[in-house]
Amino acid sequence: MPVQALIPDMLPGLSDEILGCMELRQDPLFHKIPKEKIPYYVHESLQAGRLAAAAYKGHGIRAMCREAGLRYEITEASGKFHNVSFRAQIDFSKTPPEIILYASSLKGMQTVCQEILGERSSSGEADLDLLVDIHLAHEFYHWLEYREQSFTNERLEAIEVFKLGPWTKRSSVVQCCEIAAHAFCKELLGLPCLPNLLDYAYLIEEKQLQAEDFMQQITTCKLWI
């Protein structure tokens, strides 16, 4: 059943802030973030991605990779490690770092790509090309962070995770890097929404996430943003 039918009237209202908040919820320390600080982490992360993308406006992501000397490989190998499926990853142990894209995992998203991105994807081949570009752009942002040694989470305020008397342990919010990478990708490719919506649509279609649970999470995020 098409995703739009499962979550009617929901997709058009999903702002970057709401989808950014959905990403923030995935942070292992999310429960430590004061609720009043949630908008700060979402907005600042989105802004970091948008600003980075502005420097590349009008550039194609594949040309950007070539000009940066970044290699990328589309492999038929399974992207499954320890029961977690990856669609793409960047290997910083290589010089220069190499982006690996897992074709079998990307192909599984072609249907939701067409449903969510509509006219941007008109055929199976175009869907796959667009999915490759989306994941290249996402990893390119992480490469920018690595190159500059300036990671989005480290540029934002750390949160208090433990306190004992006068001693306080603080940690950064690592999921901010993902929010920024989504914003970079959306801005660079001119997508209608943050690309993490594709992940949720895929999970709903595969019945790994109930549409009702997704909608409840969206409702909760709207209260925080």
UniProtKB/TrEMBL annotation:
Originating organism: Paenibacillus lutimineralis
Name of the protein: Uncharacterized protein
Origin: domain of life: Bacteria
